[in-house]
Amino acid sequence: MYKYTLCFLKRKDEILMLNRDFAPVQGLWNGIGGKMKEGETPLDCIIREIDEETGISIKPEEVTFKGIITWETDLGYQDGLYVFLADIPSATHYETPQKTAEGILDWKKISWLLAPGQLGAGEMIPHYLLNVLNCREPLKHVCILQDKKLISYEFTHLS
């Protein structure tokens, strides 16, 4: 069992991203999420984190489990998280940029997040984001990092 969750809140062709003020991924755009509390399920955690970090109240049926993302470093560190997707209605107005206790929230175009050479988001995001957005079944995303650089990305169906 992993101890972290991550959610991409999608509205039309944009995703609400957080430029984090703190480690990990300090200074980079990432989805919304955080660490599970004792006794919390991944779904409970992501609903709480979305509310805490954005003020947006999401119901469990509005969030889709999209799989897990794991990573391993050349220093032997291994971890992972549960990844979710929430479609926000097109008419929803959520003003950004917005400074919060965690960092800056802003809507980012999906095309920008996936653009080759884009350095503003976490390095793994352009590799797995399309699968999170488009695959119906949950996937296991496996990322290998060396010297803080992604050197390998693979995915399989989560069984």
From TrEMBL:
GO terms for molecular function: hydrolase activity, acting on acid anhydrides, in phosphorus-containing anhydrides; metal ion binding. One of its GO terms (cellular component) is cytoplasm. Residues 1-133 form the Nudix hydrolase domain. Coiled coil: none annotated. Keywords: Hydrolase, Magnesium, Metal-binding. Its cofactor is Mg(2+). Belongs to the Nudix hydrolase family. This is DNA mismatch repair protein MutT. It comes from Pradoshia eiseniae.
